[in-house]
Design goal:
Helix content: 25-40%
InterPro entries: Chondroitin_lyas (IPR008929), Gal_mutarotase_sf_dom (IPR011013), GH-type_carb-bd (IPR014718), Lyase_8 (IPR038970), Lyase_8-like_C (IPR011071), Lyase_8_alpha_N (IPR012970), Lyase_8_C (IPR004103), Lyase_8_central_dom (IPR003159)
Family: Belongs to the polysaccharide lyase 8 family.
Number of helices: 16
Shape: globular
Largest sheet: 12 strands, antiparallel
GO molecular function, one term: lyase activity
Keywords: Lyase, Signal
Strand content: 25-35%
Structural class: alpha+beta
Protein name: Polysaccharide lyase 8 family protein
Number of strands: 33
Radius of gyration: 28 Å
Length: 804
């Protein structure tokens, strides 16, 4: 083994790769342009990992890779020039020595700087190995990386150090970066040094870290820990470590019924109570893709048949929350407060991870996923993936390989509804728009705050209704929405204006409302969804229902009650109009001022329209308040690590003011995404299109005769229109126009051992029914008796009938 590359060896190797059109300089043995020796499996794994983290199949002289490589070199040069090893730091701005080591917030900062120091070395190592960085093969850069590793090992990351601050920094952040550097610089690191680095990893990430599937060793965290163990085995030439990493992945694969992981309905939970498909779920997906690819074709290949659960989850769990390249904020947890990475920039790595995961899936799955990714990437006009400055070279290369693949026909967005009762979420897609709903219950937190992030996400679980257009408003929540929006007026929510402290309710999703009735019913095209809402640290209570239909979402609220000495409001919508937004706003045909500030109380309003966004219909007319304002905030306001620079955006807000300490207040409106002013006015004028059957504290229901639809959320048993239920449930009935109908029922409370439902409609026969129906009687009315629904986890039970 040599301690460094000679210039002659480097130049010769570079010439070979350049002639071959290669991208990254992915060699594990100096002077060898070919793959690792066949009799050295660890060298082969190092070569594979180098390719995975440096990228493959791209030209370093083509954009955007040329610019990204130059940026990588500039960043590495910055770290090289600023490096100043000293007692307690490697860089002056990243002091990691903790004068009072424990697990308080200050110690979190110090441990984070320790991990960040390794991440900077990783950046430098990549600049050394990649072509086109301006520092490729630079000996000063190489020596700085090697000296930096030694300094951190001597000072802080060694087998005699006791960890402090955030466990993540010691078990995932630092060792992942350290081991990546060891792979990239393997031939320049003396064996004795490698042994010490491996001993440090063994100290902080012992085998016992994956001994049980509990605590911080579940879901995405478990995959990250397995990555550390696998690379530790690769760097140290320890087969047992690699085998342990492979085997420790197995608990991630099976579907779960509680806690962290993937659920049968497509939910993904991390931190026990937080829907996290778009953040931790992304990490898990990417980590699994990397490990599957690393070990494929080796002695340690991941062969657990349950890994198919992950493959199935691509379309069952991740795809429902991807829309035109973005991943919906409703499943991003604390990540919404990170100003540098918005919903589009969080979505793009998921696209790249799906491409990578496809390498380990079947040929049919791989082809379909690539077509899905091509569609998402092509439709992301707001923030094209290839322009994403936070997307790494490897992810860029994977997405570009799909965009350039002329054999692929992009798959369009699906049409339909997905309900995720296990994480109190729903998504709805129709031609031209998509929506997402976030709620909270006894199992799912209002919101997650932690590490000083997401300090004002208090009401994101109070029925927040997000929506996007296909060719408009894709940046609605991307364009500085979170630091500038009024956090008490999130769209769709009902909230008390009681002043809340930053981080109210406690860290890590501990705040859970004491309610069970949250969920609904769907026929996969339409849905009735309800939330029994109790306010975060307030006396607020409300019953909220959403009926997701073909071109609208019908929104009802009832039983709205509060005794906080504060106003209570239900926000119809709160649209981010951007820095200059002057979208015309019309109410009942009357144009309102486009200047800000402007506000009004709209009495007897039957409809409103916001140009470039959509329409709002208020059945029977109502009083609603409107506000056009300019709002200024800072990312630091919602994230202690955020920028202190002020940002301003204009908003148009519509809301119902229920007054101070209301009793049994109500609201009703239709949201029509993308509707023109003419269509909005026409819907308002068609008083027979929608019938509100009930909007009380006991039941909420609607009928739309033209759709043959009746839908009711029974908070308590009772009679609503043609439906009678003897217990709480959610019901959706659709007559299809061909002599048949479906009756869809669920128990959102997951508690019913019996349920009787009557539909007062003549039915000739039952075509099919689930096992939960213990008896069905037809004739002048349909009577259904359901058995134990407690085990259905709130899933929809569908009965198909033929009408008389």
């Amino acid at each position: 083994m040599t301690s460094a590359w000679s210039r002659r060896t480097f130049l010769a190797t570079s010439a070979v790769l350049t002639a071959a059109g290669g991208g990254a300089l992915a060699l594990s043995t100096p002077g060898a342009a070919s793959a690792a020796p066949e009799d050295d499996p660890y060298a082969a794994l190092r070569a594979t990992w180098s390719g995975l983290i440096l990228g493959e199949g791209f030209s370093p002289t083509a954009e955007p890779f040329k610019s990204r490589l130059a940026d990588l070199g500039a960043k590495a040069s910055q770290w090289l020039e600023a490096m100043a090893p000293a007692d307690g730091s490697l860089w002056p701005d990243a002091v990691f020595a903790d004068p009072d080591p424990d697990t308080d917030p200050e110690s979190y900062v110090f441990s984070g700087r320790m991990a960040d120091s390794f991440i900077r070395l990783n950046t430098m190592a990549q600049a050394y190995r990649q072509q086109g960085t301006g520092l490729t093969g630079n000996t000063a850069l190489r020596d700085a990386v090697l000296n930096g590793l030694e300094h951190l090992n001597a000072q802080v990351y060694n087998d005699g150090q006791t960890r402090y601050g955030n466990w993540y920094s010691w078990q995932i952040g630092a060792p992942q970066a350290l081991l990546d550097v060891c792979v990239l610089m393997y031939d320049a690191i003396a064996p004795e040094r490698l042994a010490r680095y491996c001993a440090a990893v063994d100290h902080f990430v012992p085998d016992s870290a994956v001994a049980s599937y509990t605590g911080t060793s579940t879901g995405a965290n478990r995959v990250d820990l397995c990555r550390v163990l696998a690379l530790r085995g690769v760097v140290g030439g320890t087969a047992a470590k690699i085998a342990l990493a492979r085997d420790a992945l197995s608990p991630v694969f099976p579907l779960v019924t509680k806690g962290d992981g993937l659920y049968a309905d497509g939910s993904f939970i991390q931190h026990t109570t937080v829907p996290y498909t778009g953040s931790y779920g992304s990490v898990m997906l990417g980590g699994l893709g990397l490990l599957f690819a690393l070990l494929k074709g080796t002695t340690w290949e991941v062969s657990d048949p349950k890994r198919q659960v992950v493959f199935d989850a691509v379309e069952n769990a991740w795809a429902p929350f991807l829309y035109n390249g973005l991943v919906m904020d409703s499943v991003a947890g604390r990540a919404i407060s990170r100003g540098e990475v918005d919903d589009h920039r969080r979505g793009h790595p998921i696209l790249a991870s799906i491409v990578l995961l496809g390498r380990g899936a079947s040929a049919a799955e791989n082809a379909r996923w690539r077509a899905l990714v091509k569609g998402w990437a092509q439709r992301d006009y707001y923030s094209p993936p290839m322009d994403n400055p936070s997307l790494g070279l490897t992810a860029l290369a994977r997405i570009k390989s799909v965009l350039d693949d002329t054999s692929l026909t992009p798959i369009a967005e699906p049409d339909g509804h997905r309900l995720f009762p296990d994480m109190a979420r729903a998504t709805h897609r129709r031609p031209g728009w998509a929506a997402s709903l976030s709620m909270a219950d006894r199992r799912i937190t209002y919101y997650e705050v932690g590490n000083g992030e997401n300090l004002r996400g208090w009401h994101t679980g109070s029925g927040m209704l997000y929506w996007w257009g296909d060719t408009f408003a894709n940046g609605q929540y991307s364009d500085a929405f979170w630091p500038t929006v009024d956090p008490y007026r999130l769209p769709g929510t009902t909230a008390s204006r009681k002043v809340l402290a930053d981080g109210a309710g406690g860290d890590w999703g501990v705040a859970l409302p004491d309610v069970n009735w949250v969920g609904g019913v769907t026929d996969r095209k339409r849905a009735a969804v309800g939330q029994y809402l109790k306010g975060l640290t307030s006396t607020l209570m409300a019953k909220k229902s959403w009926f997701f239909l073909d071109d609208t979402v019908v929104c009802l609220g009832a039983g709205i009650h509060g005794r906080d000495g504060a106003a209570v409001e239900s926000t119809v919508d709160n649209r981010n109009l951007g820095p200059t937004g002057n979208a015309p706003f019309t109410v009942d045909g009357s144009a309102k001022p486009v200047t800000a500030p402007w506000s009004a109380t709209l009495t007897g309003a039957s409809w409103a329209h916001l140009a470039g966004h959509g329409g709002y219909v208020f059945p029977g007319g109502t009083t609603v308040k409107a506000l056009r304002e300019n709002r200024t905030g800072r990312w630091r306001d919602i994230n202690t690590a955020g920028s202190t620079d002020p940002v301003s955006r204009k908003y148009l807000t519509l809301w119902f003011d229920h007054g101070t300490d209301p009793t049994d207040a109500t609201y009703a409106y239709q949201l029509l995404p993308g509707a023109s002013e003419q269509r909005t006015a026409a819907r308002a004028a068609d008083s027979g299109w929608l019938r509100v059957l009930a909007n009380t504290d006991d039941q909420q229901g609607v009928a739309v005769p033209s759709l043959g639809l009746t839908a009711v959320n029974f908070w308590f048993g009772g009679s609503v229109g043609p439906l009678v239920a003897d217990a709480p449930c959610s019901v959706l009935v659709t007559e299809h126009g061909d002599g048949t109908a479906t009756v869809c029922v669920s128990d959102p409370m997951r508690a019913r051992t019996s349920l009787a439902l009557t539909w007062n409609r003549a039915v000739a026969s039952v075509v099919s029914k689930p096992a939960t129906v213990t008896s069905a009687t037809t004739g002048a009315s349909l009577r259904l008796a359901f058995g134990d629904l407690s085990g259905t986890r709130g899933a929809t039970q569908t009965v198909k009938v033929r009408l008389a």
